[in-house]
Amino acid sequence: DIQMTQSPSTLSASVGDRVTITCRASQSISSWLAWYQQKPGKAPKLLIYKASSLERGVPSRFSGSGSGTEFTLTISSLQPDDFATYYCQQYNSYSRTFGQGTKVEIK
Amino acid sequence: EVQLVESGGGLVQPGGSLRLSCAASGFTFSNYEMNWVRQAPGKGLEWVSYIGSGGFTTYYADSVKGRFTISRDNANDSLYLHMNSLRAEDTAVYYCARGADHSSSFDYWGQGTLVTVSS
Lengths: 107, 119
Description:
The complex is a heterodimer of chains A (107) and B (119). Helix content of chain A is 0%, strand content 48%. Chain A is built from no helices and ten strands. Chain A has strands at residues 4-7, 10-13, 19-25, 33-38, 45-49, 53-54, 62-67, 70-75, 85-90, 102-106. In chain A, the strands form two sheets. A six-stranded mixed beta sheet of chain A has the order 2-10-9-4-5-6, with no helix packed on it. A four-stranded antiparallel beta sheet of chain A has the order 1-3-8-7, with no helix packed on it. Chain B is 0% helix and 51% strand. Chain B has strands at residues 3-7, 10-12, 18-25, 34-39, 45-51, 58-60, 68-73, 78-83, 92-99, 106-109, 113-117. In chain B, the strands form two sheets. In chain B, strands 2, 4, 5, 6, 9, 10 and 11 form a seven-stranded mixed beta sheet that branches. Chain B has a four-stranded antiparallel beta sheet with strand order 1-3-8-7, with no helix packed on it. In chain B, strand 5 and strand 6 form a beta hairpin. Chain B is globular. Chain B starts with a strand and ends with a strand. The mean pLDDT of chain B is 97.
């Protein structure tokens, strides 16, 4: 199975900061990667698909990049609504593995 | 409006069985791949199972293979997860999630249903 590793596990940041989260795959997944945002008690929300495509309705401050085994999610200017946990997910193989999550906290 | 509504969760003893349902509306259900994803209390997301739009192709996480069965009823816009030989580590909120038409990412999710396995 393909393993997905996110870093950091927790990130403390302030409103207005530029934030970057990294996701590494244990083998190449081309661009078959998605990013999700989850808030406590809520279902996850799709932000990015195919590594860099912005889901309809998602603010443009979110962007994704990468291919192969290394990927990043960037929030260009952190807003109060962005404090949440973020997950990457590969869908290259039949087993749609998630990363362990990155919690973005208020500094 | 796309809606996915899970039901069927509850308290079950170890070794027991449960069937989860997901009622879909607001889209042509038979055209879409579907998935189950779970989240143990305080933990991250774990993909559980996939079913193709026609119901003929299914995949499972190793942790549930041989114990869980995914199925769908396209005539009634419903997705199911039959869970047998339940263990304490199966305790989680179970979400159904739709495969996006632009990729195999998950573009719509239900609100989740809690399964607790305990004696």
